[in-house]
Design goal:
heterodimer; A: 291 residues; B: 639 residues; mainly alpha; four-stranded parallel β-sheet; 29 helices
């Protein structure tokens, strides 16, 4: 039995210590390369199946340039058997969920997996679409956000548990092959043995080359709304915001400007100033005489 | 007197002894390498003064008497048999000494016999108790028959009961002895056969320590010199675990040298806190496993079958067992090997530490905060910035994970930076380029991770041209000083207390102001004291505070009690027994002191927790020595 675990390499942002607003206040050291923790949970489920059944092969599939090699190799050390990487000519930032799925499907068809597991979503994009696209394109049953999976090797079925909110646990029966996306588990991370680590360090990463992107014609992106421009508040220095909120606003690109003016002088002068202020803003229309 | 049969019997005994120890050879087959020190002078001095044994006065004196007595009797008897001294013509003084020595030996052996039968091992599960008592009973019988033999000789010489001044005790026995040469011959035979029997018991009972402990003492090394085998990395064949071939000769010898005297158990914090770890029993069980497995070269299941995991994970690696072992055996090293075996060969790491280990792997620190937050001290301008390069005259301040992240230890670093600036020392930090030194990984058995982290650190340090390192954390200090050289990092490492003492002595800093509390006591960190023998700087500093009165705790210097945070116990859950830090906190509380000075972030945290858990209105305060120095210099150290 072949289980394919799709693993996404992400840049995990854990801090925001930069000073440049153009870079969203991110410094280089604020990020570290990691494998999407949802995908690690998917591997955990695959490892559980491997423990119970004989002759289970776990293939870890990743897409794009090799960023988090150490972390991917750790998945091998934890119990994966093979690491496959898909190389494409499409730049990394031009991948849509759909095109990612299409590249993955090409590899999955070549590898002939019986069970495809992937994370429910990724920690960076949070789109949660790839699993659904995979199932759609492969025409396989799909269950999202599963927390446990048991395989019946005779009937070639999988019994899957998923949390359906408010403490309800759904149990599904699914035929194999199937695509499941996995919810993040809170179990402590596994520890690999020395021999497994040494194997993982040595093992070669198989690379599949796919050039052309051939999107599914049934589903086409129709229109893309650009993101709403970020609202820029201009809190005055004497606004009632707390210092924390003010700093937060500043960090999101707001500016503090002094917009108020204190009117001083005698009563007549003050009235005149107010009238001229209102006239400047064209709130009061100038009279015929003044014209 | 000496007949051919005796010679034959002696020959047979010698042969049996020889073959018995030869059979042990497979266990010690790993040859002694040239680097193993051989301290011949040391063993002679050890036998003459027996200082490590004399730490427990009565046992030490009894042991001294038995050893000296045995050697003296053998010496005199051999001289006798070689006709240098004729029987009957012994000088009166020698005869008198022998008589008194015999009595003293009798009392000593009786002491051991009583102590042996109420030995802690009885309740702690050593099942070989009768076997332990055999040589002692034989010794008692030998002494009694010796006196009887002397009495028969005196009876023949003096015709019945007379008190002879040269042999006051021996002549007492003549009360019930008839003057018969036959009886004398019979008793002398019995005495002789008992001696042979005793000699035969040596390789098969705990008396083997007479040989094995001696060998171990000859080849002893200082604490900081680890004897555990190095992890073999990047070899072609995946090595699952520590194989028998990797086991060090000295490690095996140390197992064999252990006589289960129980001094390690008496001083082990885990044992005293009621945890399942009993080092003496562990050594005995490990020795049994070795006896079964090593000749067959079975590498798997070296330890697991008889040693439960709860024992292995209870150790705080405080090295009290090593310090108190009279024969220089090293239970801590065996425990760390067993931990390593568990993690490296079976992937069995306690669940509560796994997240910490993963953080160590990903973020480079056990807290999972990451390099961006590590440089907080630099970003806040209370630590000098650095690009990772160190100039010629500059010193590197190794901040460490606790110094970078823990609020208490951050104060220490702040204080230390103030002291160094005042003392005119040009120093830099590695800021976010520093990683954890790898102590948590090493102490919890993940040697592979430790080596990876250490190599990264060494590469960074070497790239920056670092020559001298100052650190405030004894755990970092120990690893940087004693473990990094083997991986290629050679630096002059100094602990901050050593440096502060130097600055005070050179009048570069002045402790002008008295502390709020005058009564100070000192908690010696294990990794500073026992591991690296740094006791005095802490005391020197404390004496310099104006008006300060230093009181020592009950257990101090080599006997200092662990705070309970070492050996990865900072991250392990304290499920069994009572918390170790509370025991130490009670000890500090019972002293007069109001301030407990220490120099270790682990100790600081553990003691603070322990002292506050006493739930008293006023308890002594645990403070880091650097903070005390800075406030005595007139700086207020706040967050």
């Amino acid at each position: 039995m072949k289980i394919i675990v799709c693993a996404k390499q992400i840049r995990h942002t854990y801090a925001r210590t930069g000073i440049n607003p153009d870079e969203n206040y991110l410094a280089e050291k604020d990020q570290l390369l990691a494998v999407n923790p949802f995908d690690e949970s998917a591997l955990d489920i695959a490892l559980k199946i491997k423990k119970k059944l004989e002759s289970v092969e776990i293939i870890i599939l990743t897409l794009g340039p090799l960023l988090a090699e150490e972390q991917l190799r750790r998945l091998i050390a934890l119990g994966g058997d093979q690491l496959v990487r898909i190389e494409t000519e499409v730049p990394e930032d031009q991948f849509s969920s759909q095109s990612k799925a299409i590249f993955l499907i090409k590899a999955i068809k070549r590898l002939k997996g019986d069970l495809i597991l992937c994370g429910k979503e990724s920690l960076d994009c949070k789109s949660g679409q790839v699993g659904a696209f995979l199932a759609h394109e492969l025409n396989l049953p799909f269950i999202s956000g599963i927390s446990d999976c048991k395989i019946d090797p005779q009937k070639q079925t999988a019994i899957v548990e998923r949390k359906a909110g408010t403490g309800t646990i759904e149990v599904w029966n699914s035929e194999l092959p199937a695509v499941f996306s996995v919810e993040l588990n809170r179990e402590p991370p596994g520890v690999s043995t020395l021999s497994a680590r040494q194997y993982a360090r040595r093992c070669s990463i198989e690379t599949f080359y796919f050039d052309q992107r051939s999107d599914d014609e049934r589903l086409t992106p129709f229109y893309l709304y650009p993101p709403m421009p970020r609202t820029r508040y201009k809190p005055a220095p004497d606004s009632c915001l707390s210092s924390f909120d003010r700093v937060q606003l500043l960090l999101t690109g707001s500016q503090i400007q002094k917009e108020s003016e204190i009117i001083e002088g005698t009563a007549t002068e003050q009235v005149r100033k107010v009238i001229s202020f209102l006239k400047e803003r064209k709130i009061l229309q100038p009279t015929q005489k003044e014209k | 007197m000496f007949v051919a049969l005796d010679g034959l019997l002696i020959l047979i005994t010698g042969l049996v002894l020889f073959t018995a120890f030869l059979e042990e050879r497979p266990r010690w087959y790993i040859p002694v390498d040239d680097k193993t020190p051989r301290d011949w002078v040391g063993i002679v001095l050890y036998l003459l003064f027996q200082r490590p044994i004399l730490r427990k006065t009565w046992t030490g004196v009894a042991h001294l008497i038995v050893v000296f007595g045995t050697f003296f009797f053998i010496f005199i008897v051999v001289l006798d048999q070689l006709d240098v001294l004729l029987p009957g013509s012994q000088p009166i003084i020698v005869s008198f000494i022998l008589d008194i020595l015999g009595v003293l030996m009798f009392v000593s052996v009786l002491f051991f016999l009583v102590k042996g039968s109420i030995h802690p091992g009885v309740s702690l599960g050593i099942k070989t108790l009768p076997k332990r008592l055999i040589p002692l009973v034989l010794l008692i019988l030998i002494i009694i028959t010796g006196f009887l033999a002397e009495a028969t000789r005196l009876a023949i010489e003096n015709d019945g009961f007379t008190l002879v001044p040269s042999a006051p005790i021996g002549s007492l026995f003549t009360i019930f002895i008839v003057d018969s040469p036959l009886l004398m011959q019979v008793i002398i035979r019995i005495h002789f056969y008992l001696v042979l029997l005793f000699a035969l018991s040596v390789p098969f009972t705990f008396m083997r320590h007479a040989v094995t402990s001696g060998i171990n003492i000859i080849h002893r090394t200082p604490f900081s010199d680890s004897t555990s085998p190095k992890l073999i990395m990047n070899n072609r064949e995946p090595s699952d675990s520590i194989t028998v071939e990797q086991l060090n000769w000295r490690l095996l010898m140390g197992l064999d040298a252990c006589t289960a005297c129980g001094r390690c158990t008496e001083n082990c914090p885990a044992a005293l806190a009621g945890k399942p770890l009993l080092p003496a029993i562990l050594m005995q069980k490990a020795n049994q496993q070795m006896k079964d497995n090593v000749p067959k070269r079975i590498s798997a299941s070296l330890f697991e079958s008889s040693i439960p995991l709860a024992i292995i994970w209870s150790c705080t690696s405080c090295m009290a067992c090593i310090e108190h072992c009279p024969v220089y055996a090293r239970p801590v090293e065996w425990i760390s090997l067993m931990r390593r075996q568990q993690v490296m060969a079976y992937g069995e790491l306690p669940v509560e530490t796994r997240m910490m280990m993963r953080n160590l792997e990903d973020f480079g620190d056990p807290l999972g905060k990451g390099p961006a937050i590590r440089s907080k001290g630099v970003d806040n301008h209370w630590l000098p910035t650095s690009s990772g390069k160190v100039k010629k005259d500059q010193t590197l301040l190794w901040v460490g994970c606790s110094g970078a992240f823990h609020p208490e230890a951050q104060l220490t670093i702040k204080a230390l930076s103030v002291i160094l600036k005042e003392g005119g020392i040009d120093f830099v930090t590695l800021a976010n380029k520093e990683l954890c030194c790898g102590e948590p990984a090493k102490s919890l058995g993940d040697e592979d991770l430790f080596i990876n982290i250490a190599k990264k650190n060494i590469a960074q340090l070497n790239r920056g041209g670092v020559k001298e390192i100052i650190t405030h954390c004894p755990h970092c200090y120990h690893l940087l000083k004693n473990e990094y050289p083997e991986l290629g990092g050679h630096y002059a490492v100094r602990h901050s207390t050593e440096l502060i003492v130097e600055l005070i002595q050179d009048n570069k800093i002045e402790l002008k102001y008295a502390l709020n509390e005058k009564q100070i006591t000192i908690h010696d960190p294990c990794y500073l004291g026992r591991a690296n023998n740094i006791y005095q700087p802490l005391r020197d500093i404390c004496k310099t505070f104006p008006g300060a009165r230093l009181t020592e705790l009950n257990r101090h210097h080599e006997n200092a009690f662990c705070c309970g945070g070492g050996g990865g116990n900072m991250w392990l859950h304290d499920k069994l027994g009572s918390p170790i830090n509370q025991l130490r906190a009670k000890e500090i509380d019972s002293s007069e002191a109001k301030l407990a000075a220490t120099a270790c972030p682990f100790c600081l945290t553990m003691l603070r927790d322990g002292l506050s858990s006493l739930e008293k209105e006023s308890v002594p305060k645990a403070v880091d020595i650097a903070v005390m120095v800075a406030s005595s210099m007139g700086f207020s150290i706040t967050e």
